[in-house]
Design a protein that fits this description.
alpha+beta; 60s Ribosomal Protein L30, Chain: A; six-stranded mixed beta sheet; 3 helices
Length: about 160
């Protein structure tokens, strides 16, 4: 048992040293990403924040950026507008849907799950990002869906 503990401790020490060495060469800065092609934030947050190769996109709802109006005619149209807003922010950061590694989808009712998958798969194809979809009691402006994503793009 002692040998295993010492070995585990050594592994953790080497991992930490490697991370510290890697971190020293990262030189990452925080950059706010904003675009008029997506709705302005409706609270004290940014549309997205880039740190190194990572992009963190705030939850988007179905607001048309050109008019500020909500798209609420049906769930499919609402989700399409949400994903168009996400796409506009990704493009503003020089990325696209293929760079998304994780998506979080909040829905007002999980009975929309089949429609969610149908529309979602027209934007995300091939190697899908990790995703969680959860039903929540209420969303901003009483919309039916909100989507937040994390994207990664190595420097090219």
């Amino acid at each position: 048992m002692r040998r295993r503990t010492a070995y585990s401790g050594l592994c953790l020490l080497l991992l930490a040293a490697g991370c510290a060495h890697q971190r020293a060469s990262w030189n990452w800065t925080k950059e706010i990403i904003a675009t008029d092609a997506a709705p302005r934030a409706i609270g004290p947050y940014s549309q997205a924040v880039r740190v190194g190769p990572w992009l963190f996109v705030s939850g988007q709802i179905a607001i048309k950026p050109s008019t500020g109006e909500l798209v609420t005619s049906d769930f499919d149209s609402e989700l399409r507008q949400v994903l168009e807003n996400v796409g506009a922010i990704l493009r503003a950061a020089g990325m696209d849907y293929r760079d998304v590694v994780q998506a979080t989808v909040f829905v007002s009712d999980l009975s929309f799950y089949a429609k969610l998958n149908e529309v979602y798969s027209t934007y995300f194809r091939g190697d899908f990002p990790a995703r969680c979809a959860v039903q929540v009691a209420r969303l901003p402006r009483d919309v039916h869906v909100e989507v937040a994503v994390i994207a990664y793009r190595a420097e090219r």
